[in-house]
Amino acid sequence: MTGRRRTWTAGAAALSVLAWAAWLAWDREYQFDPATSTTSGPYAEWQVIGCVLTLLAAAVLAGWVQRPLVAALVVTVPFTLCWTVDAALQDETGLFLVGALLIAVGLFLGSLLVAVGVGRATGRSRLDA
Q: What does pTM read for this prediction?
């Protein structure tokens, strides 16, 4: 891997961590709606949308410089690790593992799809190219 390619790959991984830190890491509050007696959170819709858009940018960047499988791992692993460690420190039930698995699978598949699309758009359409 060339130096420039390695730098862009590291940038995509850093963007993945930034997505977690900027949008999700700081919010621990749940919201209660007295009208419906429901509790939601800790993340608001706008936070999740911002996080997904940031992860989309990371997947596009990773897919531009790496093979799709590598790109998906570059985006998925850092974000999932950040989310999982944070959730593990707060959860007493162990259910954070379910969330971590759902995040890992969903983010991997979504990143892979984006990276394949970027590869096709740039003329690198094979999974191993």
A: 0.85
